[in-house]
Design a protein that fits this description.
Layout: H1 2-28, E1 43-44, E2 54-57, E3 62-67, E4 84-89, E5 98-99, E6 101-102, E7 113-121, E8 126-133, E9 140-147, E10 152-159, E11 167-174, E12 177-182, H2 189-198, E13 203-208, E14 213-220, E15 223-228, E16 234-239, E17 244-250, E18 256-263, E19 288-294, E20 297-302, E21 308-311
Parallel strand pairs: 6-10
Antiparallel strand pairs: 1-21, 2-3, 3-4, 4-5, 7-8, 8-9, 9-10, 11-12, 12-13, 13-14, 15-16, 16-17, 17-18, 19-20, 20-21
Enzyme class: hydrolase
Keywords: Calcium, Disulfide bond, Glycoprotein, Hydrolase, Metal-binding, Signal
InterPro entries: 6-blade_b-propeller_TolB-like, Arylesterase, Serum_paraoxonase/arylesterase
Length: about 325
């Protein structure tokens, strides 16, 4: 009877592990095939060789690019070079990314930028850039003021908080307030990998301001990209392992109310709600992480690789 119980338990464990492996491969898209979709007049941007993980474009066409991310388990083409913020003028006929200098006193050697977001103060048009930073693989938010005439960033403050242990991305609500995603529950690499493998829905969205910090949304497999709607009424959260985008209503107290979930995987169905404008199998871009549009121009960034600039066709 004891042997039968052991065999039964082993069988249950093996079945569970097998099912988790299959689900994990599905979430990672390991079995997905891609049919290329090309755009005219596409080219890789010069000067970006080691990542362009996030991009934010100002109304005047100036694009900030987060470059050089180093992250556990992710390949880096420039492991010894600090990260940087690049500036690209999307109004130029042939735009070229330019590194922004950072004010003295900021530790540029440990700069490891991830998600970024801009905020424009309507009182004086000051542009603030909020940057998720991972010095020594920790998580902070760096607040900069953009000095356009000098192509520079003036560092104003560093934000740390216990509710922001694994920040991936953020969207600015003010000069030093924002919504941010934690893409893992655990900070330990072994436990965070186990968390992904088991498909635990423990990641969340945090609202931060100097006066209040609180969890405003949870139950994501891996909360990743975050942004705000053009009318400033809704917050969008991408759950990359859930293969969906969550739409949440902003409330006056900064809490969030779920409105709907957009299932991205039905892009391959007969009635897709998402249109594919560019698809590549890795021959041009590897590990794409962000896409931004300005005046019919598309900019695609990657976690650790290059950046692509294209012109969109009229739909």
């Amino acid at each position: 009877m004891g042997k039968l119980l052991k065999i039964t338990l082993v069988g249950i464990v093996l079945a569970f592990v097998g099912e988790r492996i299959v689900r994990f491969r599905e979430r990672m898209g390991a079995t997905r095939t891609l049919d290329p979709v090309e755009l005219p007049n596409c080219h890789l941007l010069e000067g970006i060789e080691a990542g362009s993980e996030d991009i934010d474009i100002l109304p005047n066409g100036l694009a900030f690019i987060s470059a050089g991310l180093k992250y556990p388990g992710i390949k880096s083409f420039a492991p010894d070079k600090p990260g940087e913020i690049l500036l690209l003028d999307m109004t130029d006929k042939n735009p070229v990314p330019v590194p922004l200098t950072i004010s003295p006193g900021f530790d540029v050697d440990s700069f490891n930028p991830h998600g970024i977001s801009t905020y424009i103060d309507r009182k004086d048009d000051t542009v603030y850039l909020l940057v998720v930073n991972h010095p020594q693989f920790k998580s902070t938010v760096e607040v900069f003021k953009f000095v356009e005439e000098e192509n520079a960033l003036e560092h104003l403050k560093t934000i740390r908080h216990d509710l922001l242990p694994r920040i991936n991305d953020l969207v600015a609500m003010g000069p030093d307030s924002f919504y941010a995603t934690n893409d893992h529950y655990f900070t330990n690499s072994i436990m965070s990998n186990l968390e992904m493998f088991l498909g635990l829905r423990w990641t969340n969205v945090i609202y931060y301001s100097p006066k209040e910090v609180k969890e405003v949304a949870t139950d994501f497999c891996m909360a990743n990209g975050i942004n705000v709607s053009p009318d400033n009424k809704y917050i969008y959260v991408a759950d990359i392992f859930g293969n969906d985008i969550h739409v949440l209503r902003k409330n006056p107290d900064w809490s969030l109310t779920p409105v709907k979930v957009i299932r991205v995987q039905n892009i391959l169905s007969e009635k897709p709600i998402v249109t594919q404008v560019y698809v590549n199998n890795g021959s041009v871009l590897q590990g794409s992480s962000v896409a931004c549009v300005y005046d019919k121009k598309l900019l695609v960034g990657t976690v650790f690789h290059r950046a692509l600039y294209c012109e969109l066709e009229d739909q």
